[in-house]
Specification:
338 residues; alpha/beta; TIM Barrel; two-stranded antiparallel ribbon; globular; isomerase; flavoprotein
């Protein structure tokens, strides 16, 4: 299936809140929440997308002609590409009944692991969501990253036990999910965490721990103090705070502050292989893409996911060839400009 065919099929079954747009830029879904949009007016999601377009590529084809290698090694695992599928939860609430969290993760995790990348999985109030996600990761040989919401201590401990059984090569917490309105006043409770609380959570597991939802040097230093192995520069896809900066605009300063001591992922509005190249040039170790993978699953199942991976993988390979980098390690800051 071509990606255009995937999107066309997705529009027929993805629900009435997402439009499986040819360009997923946050404008059509706006403040559709529940849905893929944001609380408020959704300006941060749009800003995420537009900020990457303000980073330009420096073309240079005077270099030794060698095969292009897009592979990376992360936490002891080798991947064909430096991008990952992002965590999405409450599938039926935000999209449609074609999939639920369990069936969605079954498709996404297996398809990603079979095609050279890994998927972050989402979390939910229903314990079966994490149970299903970790079973899917276990079946994929541990090639997945379960993402836990910032619940209370007891709930996190229970979910960490599931993570341990899954053999997942890393675990994440999307701490910025504290701002999701549908998590308020729920049981179990979820919310912000102090450095000490986060440190205690990280100590629950020996698995590399990723803190997702960092948007400032101050926040990055707090995650470092808590003992995080990696962070995700993320504003939850622009869904939780209007007026928030774009991830592309804060990435470099965060890399400068903590890039020598932890791995740094980035998400938010990254939609093409060219965008992935830009993020790597600005210092990211890995890139996360979420919403387009939802369209890929709804529009084509495993085949749709494979098609999308191949699409942006080829775009990355072509960008590297046109900018003079034959491996990910050769991508440098001088290959892009603002």
């Amino acid at each position: 299936m071509t990606y255009e065919e995937v999107l066309k099929a997705a529009r027929e079954c993805i629900g009435d809140k997402c439009f499986a747009c040819p360009v997923c830029n946050g404008k059509a879904c706006g403040n559709k929440l529940p849905g893929p949009g944001a609380k408020g007016i959704g300006d941060a999601a749009v800003r995420n997308y537009e900020a990457w377009k303000k980073v330009y590529l420096n073309m240079d084809t005077i270099y030794e002609n060698k095969p292009i290698d897009t592979s990376i090694t992360l936490f002891g695992k080798q991947f064909d590409y430096p991008f990952f599928a992002g965590p999405v939860g409450a599938i039926q609430l935000h999209y449609s009944d074609k999939y639920n969290d369990i069936t969605y993760n079954d498709v996404l995790v297996s398809a990603c692991s079979e095609h050279g990348i890994a998927a972050f999985t989402g979390d939910g109030v229903n314990p079966q969501v994490m149970e299903g996600a970790t079973k899917a990761i276990k079946a994929a040989g541990g090639l997945g990253i379960p993402t836990i919401k910032p619940w209370n201590k007891e709930t996190i401990e229970e979910k960490m036990q599931l993570v341990s059984k899954s053999d997942a090569f890393a675990v994440a917490m999307d701490i910025d999910a504290a701002g999701l309105p549908f998590l308020k006043n729920l049981t179990p409770p979820a919310g912000s965490k102090t450095v000490e609380e986060l440190k205690e959570i990280i100590n629950f597991t020996e698995t590399p721990f990723i803190v997702k939802g960092i948007m400032s040097v101050k926040g990055a230093l707090k995650a470092k103090e808590a003992g995080a192995d990696a962070i995700v520069v993320s504003n939850h896809g622009g869904r939780v705070l209007d007026g928030c900066a774009a991830t592309a605009d804060v990435l470099e300063e965060i890399v400068a502050a903590v890039g020598d001591s932890m791995k740094i992922f980035v998400d938010g509005g990254i939609r093409t292989g060219g965008d992935i190249f830009k993020a790597l040039a600005l210092g990211a170790d890995g890139i996360i893409i979420a919403r387009p993978f939802v369209s890929a699953v709804f529009g084509g199942g495993a085949e749709g996911v494979a098609g999308y991976i191949n699409k942006i993988g080829e775009e990355l390979r072509d960008t590297m060839a046109m900018c003079g980098a034959t491996s990910i390690s050769e991508i440098t800051r001088d290959m892009v400009r603002r």
